[in-house]
Amino acid sequence: MDRTGSVGNLTVSLEMEALAAVLRQVLSLLDERGVSWCISHGFERLPWSWGTDVDIVVRRSMSASDIHDLIESHAERIGARPIGPKSMFVMLAITSPDRPPRFLKLDFAHDATFGRHLLYRGEEILADRKRQANIWVPAADKAFDIVLTRAVL
Questions:
Q1: Which one of 2-11, 41-50, 74-83 scores highest in mean pLDDT?
Q2: I need a labelling partner for 34 at 20 to 30 A (CA). Which of 23, 65, 108, 142 fits?
Q3: pTM of the predicted model, to two decimals?
């Protein structure tokens, strides 16, 4: 039985725990390496829920190759390996001998955009980001703008 008391939710809870643990390790690694980052939206549900991916704004000095190399060199600690091409969209594969593979999708970006609309340059978001429960989030005014824009567009 899981924490909610439902045997049916046990598998989902274990899945989310595994994905959340990998996400925490990636974010911790970014902090340790001095990489400025911020989750642009959806952070209020973390670490237990997110959409199809986690959107992470980083400084322009971080290239796709830098991100992949950092994650790949710490794959054992993180508990997952990047798969696919070196792009700003990173798919992490979590494998274990007794389970099918699970995937965590991280969408790294230099700016906060929605479709073709630039909401904020990354430097603007990172300049006044706030720490909330071990997660860097946009300042309240920017967070509001991002949520509003996503709701309207």
A1: 74-83
A2: 142
A3: 0.85
